[in-house]
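sry for the spam today, last one i promise. struct tokens for design, 117 residues
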């Protein structure tokens, strides 16, 4: 039998207040956000080119994002930022996002739903 007492109230699952938004058309592939993200969330999408001819940044592990905003602060082109979750979801569902806007968390949820169906 374990001598460690279990917590009376289990810790609730962590919920992120904001969602990561990437404006892939604005990205210049400088990789600053990739290098500085403390959780290795970001990577360069080498399979894609934006209109400027760069490979834009994407999220390779969006589940690890901790909303620290380092990427937003360091991007010289304002191509990556954190947005209010509800507002972003409304715009995403309404199809009101500007071309090249990627919200990795919503895309991942959509793919998961498609697999379940
Ligand atoms: S908010 Fe922080 S953890 Fe999330 S992608 Fe940006 S730098 Fe990485
Ligand atoms: S810091 Fe900005 S411009 Fe540089 S790779 Fe990241 S999103 Fe693109």
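last one done:
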């Amino acid at each position: 039998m374990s001598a460690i007492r279990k917590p009376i109230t289990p810790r609730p699952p962590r919920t992120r207040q904001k969602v990561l938004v990437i404006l892939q058309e604005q990205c210049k592939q400088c990789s600053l956000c990739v290098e500085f993200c403390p959780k290795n969330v970001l990577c360069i999408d080498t399979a894609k080119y934006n209109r400027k001819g760069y490979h834009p940044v994407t999220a390779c592990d969006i589940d690890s994002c901790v909303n620290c905003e380092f990427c937003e602060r360091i991007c010289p082109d304002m191509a990556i930022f954190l947005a209010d979750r509800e507002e972003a979801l409304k715009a995403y569902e309404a199809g009101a996002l500007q071309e090249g806007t990627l919200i990795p968390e919503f895309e991942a949820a959509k793919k998961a739903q498609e697999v379940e169906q």
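Residues 20, 37-39, 41-42, 65-71, 82 surround iron/sulfur cluster (ligand 1) (CB under 6 Å). ok im logging off now
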